Amino acid sequence: MKLDAKIPEGPVQEKWDNARFKVKLVNPANKRKYKVLVVGSGLAGASAAATLAELGYQVECFCFQDSPRRAHSIAAQGGINAAKNYTNDGDSVWRLFYDTVKGGDFRAREANVYRLAQLSVNIIDQAVAQGVPFARDYGGLLDNRSFGGAQVSRTFYARGQTGQQLLLGAYAALSRQIGKGAVKMFPRTEMLDVVLVDGHAKGIVVRDLVTGEVRSHAGDAVVLATGGYGNVFYLSTNAKGCNVTATWRAHKRGAGFANPCYTQIHPTCIPVSGDHQSKLTLMSESLRNDGRVWVPKKQGDKRAPGEIPDAERDYYLERKYPSFGNLAPRDIASRAAKKPATTAAASARAASASTSTSATRSSAWARTRSRRATATCSTCMRRSPPRIRTRGRCASSRRCTTRWAGCGSTTTCSRRSRACSCSARRTSATTAPTASAPRR
Predict the structure, then answer these.
(1) Which residue of the set 109, 292, 313, 330 is catalytic?
(2) What is the pLDDT of residue 362?
(3) Which of 185, 219, 278, 334 could join 35 in a cystine, given CB atoms 3.0 to 4.6 angstroms apart?
């Protein structure tokens, strides 16, 4: 397979403008002759189907949900970025382009990212025209808030329901075209295969999920807008229906599968509460703007969060990344959040292991203390635990407890030691030399 991204030529600011100028146009009267199949009805699929229908093409749209409103785009909460610069804080198309490339770990195609930054300005106006109820300030103007990965306020939002409201706007535009007869909608339909003609996708094979009927649809082009592959993770904020089957079936037909690393992560989510929970509950990324992320400075602190004073809290994102603070990019924030959690877990394991070792040593010491005295030190040494060192020296003449605990010597020590078991009350009737042994 020849990998050719077909990125337009020229400076990054002019690539897509040049491409749009050079692309061949279709006469409005000829657009009615072409049919486009759109698989998926989320924000991408619904907006593509509605836009193509408005241009005059015949469109057939497929989704496996009961309704296009059930697409997983409703799960988005935080907002949508656009370089409007309404807050007059220095935002621009170039800054949005730079922040997006940087937030993508410099792996994204720069020409496509710049095109996205250009179109972001118009997308907000289009969404507002569709009736999306973005938040507004007291003067009635569109409001903005900060978001992770940027030092400017460019995020347009609708409470914590931005994805749902955007999808309702796209669904309204799609429904308008369905009502006009420009779009044929096929809900509860699963794509089984892609039909190729001379290496080009010209149709799809689908199954009706209600009746089980398998049928084929022919067209002039196929658009796959089928979402991501959240099931690659054991737990994810994605729905279980995000199973990448349509993309996989296209891949089996020869389509290239690139950038699997572009799976969106969320550092803020509610952990699972039991085995019955199949997915994580998403918390809006905007929480890192409206709040502060911290952990207790004292590891293993059992107090409730409200009882821990500010001086005993570690705002680690603000400490590590003072220029971005809590608005650091997601991957950086996730790694920074994992380190305190890993350190706390390691400390808990170490404390548990230390307690267990102390208990083992104490029980071993008790066992050696309970041994009955024997006649000779050689017998004593064989019976003593060979790896338990004493904390002090015994001044016994035979030095049997100089290095070992649990001594069973019958000789009286001239100096008592905690590590020596031959105390005065164990003095035997037999006598022995009392000369003190030299200390080591």
Answers:
(1) 330
(2) 41
(3) 219
